[in-house]
Specification:
The protein is mostly helical and 404 residues long. The N and C termini lie far apart (45 Å). About 2% of the residues have low confidence. The protein is 83% helix and 0% strand. The radius of gyration is 21 Å and the shape is globular. The chain has a single domain, classed as MFS general substrate transporter like domains (Growth Hormone, Chain: A), CATH 1.20.1250.20. It has 18 helices and no strands.
């Protein structure tokens, strides 16, 4: 029961993290105007969250596999609250970058902890669905970030960030304090079952060359999905280059975010059977590539076509969540948090890289000229298809060897 409650709190932490990170695109112009920042400066501030967040994921995952998840979650939530407050009060570019990077560091515990707690709490065959549910918060959090400025009319970007501080403190940090205090009191009297299990868990499993290869392959698949989602979709690259209206940008962004979540949930559910994962990924990568080309080639006046393409792109990118069960199945036992962190690191760093690259593309692309956008993200889409096809080929080979 305690681990399940912690899993729910970790999901709330992940949802808040996504909301906090993606909401930046909806007040970045206000921030730039107030502090006189260039578009490149704004892109650096945006990417400052993801880069340190990704860099510390792997050591955090290693520690979580061997430690007390609730204490690390609490430390992360409290630190994130403090640094978000610092971001809300920042007056300089350096202050924005440092506080934003600190927020990324503090939030690094949320995702691998969620994967670890899901593995402990749920049956093994539900791990893919659990990771689909966890990663679907990427879409739901992004949709929340899109509608919050409409639902709650706040005067400035600082007020929006202050609202995020209040939500984190009330829904995540405070309940975690209660859980940690209660767990400490119980542990003094009698070690809980989950603690006893952690004490006897063997972390000495050896990594074979085949396991490493499969985990790296899975990480590259997730890097394709996250890189496209963050770089192409999140920071209004296409809408700025083609001069979309604000309502069209929000509408397509919300549809894409929601259908990304639907794609992740659907892929997680269908991908509970290992044999289905490669075909799902191949279909998803091909449909995402086609939808991306439609988005680039369609006139901004064709709203329905753009919305449908955004939905298909979201569904296709959502299949990249299967990278987590693929990697977890290939890894030695008791390495769940480490593997989840490794895959998430690949996606996060790729996302940060593509965000910064998108900032450069915005500066060098003339209005209406999508050539560089097509070359950059068309290449990434092709990479996704190749990775999925290789996975399908390897799956067929293993099936043939098993039958023979």
């Amino acid at each position: 029961m305690r681990d399940r409650l912690l899993w729910i709190l970790s999901l709330l932490f992940v949802a808040w993290m996504v909301w906090s990170e993606t909401s930046f695109q909806y007040f970045d112009q206000s921030l730039a105007d107030e502090l006189d920042l260039s578009s490149a400066d704004v892109a650096v501030v945006g990417g400052a969250f993801l880069l340190p967040y990704g860099l510390v994921q792997i050591p955090v995952g290693w520690v979580l596999d061997r430690g007390r998840a609730e204490r690390w979650l609490l430390l992360g939530a409290i630190t994130a609250t403090a640094l978000t407050l610092a971001f809300a009060r920042a007056e300089t570019l350096h202050g924005l970058i440092i506080s934003r990077a600190g927020m990324g560091l503090a939030c690094a515990v949320a995702f691998p902890a969620s994967g670890l707690l899901a593995r402990r709490t749920l049956p093994p065959q539900r791990f893919a669905l659990a990771m689909g549910a966890t990663d679907s918060l990427l879409g739901f959090g992004a949709a929340l970030a899109a509608v919050m400025p409409v639902l709650i009319h706040l005067g400035s970007w600082r007020q929006q960030v202050t609202l995020q501080i209040m939500v984190l403190a009330l829904l995540v940090a405070t309940p975690l304090v209660v859980v940690v205090v209660a767990s400490s009191q119980q542990s003094r009297a009698k070690p809980s079952q989950s603690i006893r299990e952690r004490q006897v868990t063997d972390h000495s499993g050896r990594w074979s060359a085949d396991a490493i290869k499969k985990v790296v392959h899975a990480a590259l698949i997730y890097a394709w999905g996250a890189g496209t989602l963050f770089g192409f979709c999140q920071y209004g690259l296409l809408s700025e280059v083609e001069g979309w209206s604000g309502s069209l940008k929000v509408g397509v962004g919300m549809v894409l975010s929601l259908f990304t979540s639907v794609g992740m949930l659907g892929a997680g559910w269908l991908g509970s059977h290992q044999s289905r994962r490669a075909p799902i990924l191949l279909a998803g990568s091909c449909s995402a590539a086609a939808a991306l080309l439609v988005l680039v080639a369609t006139n901004p006046q064709s709203v329905i076509v753009l919305i449908l393409a955004g939905a298909i792109l979201g569904l296709g990118l959502g299949t990249s969540v299967l990278a987590f069960p693929l990697a977890e199945a290939a890894a030695p036992p008791a390495q769940t948090a480490l593997v989840v962190a490794f895959v998430n690191t690949a996606g996060t760093l790729m996302g940060a890289l593509m965000i910064m690259l998108s900032g450069v593309l915005l500066q060098v692309s003339t209005p209406g000229n999508t050539t560089l956008v097509v070359l950059t993200y068309g290449s990434l889409a092709l990479l996704g298809i190749i990775l999925a096809a290789l996975l399908q080929i390897n799956t067929i080979k293993r099936s043939a060897q098993f039958l023979s």
